[in-house]
Design a protein that fits this description.
The structure holds two protein chains of two kinds.
Chain A lengths: L3 E3 L3 E4 L5 E7 L5 E8 L3 E8 L6 E2 L6 E7 L2 E6 L8 E8 L3 H4 L5 E2 L3 E5 L1
Parallel strand pairs in A: 2-11
Antiparallel strand pairs in A: 1-3, 3-8, 4-5, 4-9, 5-6, 7-8, 9-10, 9-11
Chain B lengths: L3 E2 L4 E5 L4 E3 L2 E2 L5 E8 L6 E6 L5 E3 L5 E5 L4 E6 L8 E9 L7 E2 L3 E6 L1
The chains are: A mainly beta, B mainly beta.
Chain lengths: 117, 114
């Protein structure tokens, strides 16, 4: 069974801090994703990566960056945390399948609930 | 802009009632369609998916969904819900050639009372 592990379930940080959220998957998946989940807004894609050292902006990349130095690990970085980044952050991974990679389901971690004070 | 609409934000049902959750999308091309479920305190799990073929797809736990291309819809159904179906349900869509960039709906919170 696919396991996507996020390093923290709950995290509290202060405004202006640099925050790192870590995600590790154990299924050798090529693709990894970071979303934030907010009530009434569903899941919104922040960044994704389809290979080591490759990254692509999602729908809401402002204020975030990512790093993928190893295939199994994908880090989300809040360069200077702000209160509007308080949210639930979800990491996901998937295999690259046929139909140009679009038909493989994504597997999600348990999420990190981040509070910025 | 590409979008996915889930019109029911909150649904409350009694056990054994039938369920239908609506999902509409705004893409004009060929799409892949997914329903995910998030049980309280758990991670998102895939409920079912449609790529091609029979537009009526069956998923886990007795759920099914029907793809109606002419209506740009992918509604989720279950004939008889159980208390354990209490969860948040998300519809998601991606385009063929759109890599794996899923666009999610805003979710529907289902509460099933015993």
């Amino acid at each position: 069974d696919v396991k996507v592990t996020q390093s923290s379930r709950y995290l509290v940080k202060r405004t202006g801090e640099k925050v790192f959220l870590e995600c590790v998957q154990d299924m050798d998946h090529e693709n990894m994703f970071w979303y934030r989940q907010d009530p009434g807004l569903g899941l919104r894609l922040i960044y994704f990566s389809y290979d080591v050292k490759m990254k692509e902006k999602g729908d809401i990349p402002e204020g975030y960056s990512v790093s993928r130095e190893k295939k199994e690990r994908f880090s989300l970085i809040l360069e200077s945390a702000s209160t509007n980044q308080t949210s639930m952050y979800l990491c996901a991974s998937s295999r690259t399948g046929s139909r140009q990679g679009s038909n493989q389901p994504q597997h999600f971690g348990d999420g990190t609930r981040l509070s910025i004070l | 802009a590409q979008s996915v609409s889930q019109h029911n934000h909150h649904v409350i049902l009694s056990e054994a009632a039938s369920l239908e959750l609506g999902c509409n999308y705004s893409y004009g091309g060929t799409v892949n369609l997914f329903w995910y479920v998030q049980y309280p305190g758990q991670h998102l799990q895939l409920l079912l998916k449609y790529f091609s073929g029979d537009p009526l797809v069956k998923g886990i736990k007795g759920f099914e969904a029907e793809f109606i291309k002419s209506k740009f819809s992918f509604n989720l159904r279950k004939p008889s819900v159980q208390w354990s179906d209490t969860a948040e349900y998300f519809c998601a869509v991606n385009r063929i050639g759109g890599f794996q960039k899923l666009v999610f709906g805003t979710g529907t919170r289902l509460l099933v009372s015993p």
